[in-house]
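Changelog note: in this version the structure field was regenerated for every chain. One regenerated record is shown below for reference.
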Amino acid sequence: MAVGAEDLLKMYYYLRLARGLEDQVTKLYRQGKVVGGCYVGTGEEAISVGSAYALEPHDVIAPSHRDLGAHLVKGVLPKEYMAQYLGRRTALTKGKDGNIHFGDLERGIIGFISPMADGIPVAAGAALAFKIRREPRIAVAYFGDGASSRGDFHEGLNLAAVLKLPVLFICHNNQYAYSVPLSRQMAVPHVADRAKAYGFPTMIVDGNDILAPQRFRELVRLRHPFGIEHDLRHAMAVAQVDKDHTAMIAPSLDPAIERDGLPRLVAG
């Protein structure tokens, strides 16, 4: 896919929109106006925006809790997102659930499931349906490095590999599974090393490079799974309530801010 000036402007728009909406939700949370948790993807927007922008309208995503950018690219409106966090009846869940627990199959968004990695086998199942119906569609599953330590990660990847499903697995490797650093949850250096064991290709890319997902779209359309590990650093705590986690990851915050994909796209 050739990326022109107009495409770059649109991607920048979604980056700014995602950042602005999550900044506003964070303020509302600290004011006590948000019920439940507050989860944002500050510093990780390039992953979800870049990958979703590379998709066709009929493709399907199974986002995680840091993928507001992908939701916006797929058509979720800012007012729907804000209503979701505020528990309003105009939200996608009609006020019956909060924060990032929402989806819309008509827009190709599989609702986020709280247990990390649960969306992976669901995305593989969607890809299986596309293959059975011989539809030229792909599914995309988003997850974090911690999710790769759960059983459903391995089940989903194995299913996709054995059946050669058109599914793209995108890992936000921000080096922490909540409070557990990467070195304490697996003995291999990269999440992509785990995926390789199932027999399909993977690639490790800069998590702040918004154009990286464009290079792999056609590989998935060749009708086999593909994995992308986005290497990056936390720019904010996992949940806004977690002050201890913010203190723990503090040494990694400055490098994360320096690598932020938003000003990088402007500079590039």
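Spot check on this record: Confidence is low (pLDDT under 50) at residues 234-241. Strands lie at 60-62, 139-144, 167-173, 176-177, 180-181, 202-206, 226-231.
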